[in-house]
From TrEMBL:
InterPro entries (UniProt xref): DUF4130
Domain DUF4130, chain residue ranges per copy: 102-241
Protein's name in the database: Probable DNA metabolism protein
Protein's organism: Anaerobranca californiensis DSM 14826
Length: 249
């Protein structure tokens, strides 16, 4: 019997417990069609927690331990990482935690734990950077849209962070040819991004900001290392400030 799971935290926790008990690696649902297994497949969502916890007398206490915010956040942010190996890696991390105290595991005592902690930080930093760098353009009444340069699956989390600043607006991010929109009622919708790109490129603030930034630029105080610390080089071609930095190099 092979278990399958979706990309929700609850599903992957269930899959981790079952992996620990059966030693058979569960399969991510979107990878089912590529699996060579012909065994019966059961989604973990169909298995109640009570049944899973009854498999091992230590499981009930371990579940309480794993429901701490720190561990749940680690799993949640790792699920947003771009790594193709993220699902089996997270499952292995859950198995490790089921076999040692969580506090010990969180110190990075295992290679898997170190990797998951590192990836959590990478995803969290992308969200933090984007919240600081993204500039919205008003294109309709109560509708702001911008662009984002993302490596990971963070667009919705970024928009949720912006909701605190703009509680009464619809907010959108253009990602290549698609736009993710956080509507006023806090639902998400995916739209054609091309229709917004032209409006964004016509925004006059880009020109004004560039003129202002150039007026403040002092050649003698140029410090590329300091700039890179605050504005990573991978964003230079995307940000107005980055364009100026590149032109001054």
């Amino acid at each position: 019997m092979i278990y399958t799971y979706s990309n929700t935290v609850n599903d992957i926790l269930k899959a981790g417990f079952l992996y620990c008990h059966t030693k058979n690696l569960p399969i991510y649902q979107k990878e089912e069609e590529h699996s060579l297994f012909i065994h019966e497949k059961i989604p973990v969502s169909q298995i109640p927690w009570s049944e899973i916890l009854s498999l091992n007398k230590g499981f009930p206490q371990k579940k309480k331990e794993l429901l701490q915010d720190e561990f749940l956040k680690l799993i949640f942010l790792n699920l947003r990482h771009k790594g193709e190996d993220k699902y089996p890696l997270i499952l292995q991390g859950i198995v490790e935690v089921l076999n040692m105290p969580l506090k010990v595991w969180l110190t990075g005592i295992t290679d898997v734990g170190k990797t998951l902690e590192k990836r959590k930080g990478i995803v969290a930093r992308e969200i933090h950077k984007m919240v600081g760098f993204i500039r919205f353009v008003p294109i309709e009444k109560d509708f702001l849209i911008g662009t984002a340069l993302l490596e990971h699956q963070t667009a919705d989390l970024i928009l949720i962070n912006f909701r605190k600043r703009y509680p009464s607006y619809s907010l959108g991010l253009v990602l290549q040819d698609k736009a993710l929109v956080l509507n006023k009622d806090n639902t998400f919708s995916v739209e054609d991004g091309k229709k917004y790109l032209e409006k964004i490129t016509k925004d006059q603030f880009h020109k004004v900001w560039k003129e202002y930034y150039n007026s403040q630029y002092i050649e003698e105080r140029k410090n590329i290392k300091y700039v890179q610390k605050n504005i990573p080089k991978k964003y230079w071609h995307w940000l107005t400030e980055g364009e100026i930095i590149l032109s001054k190099k």
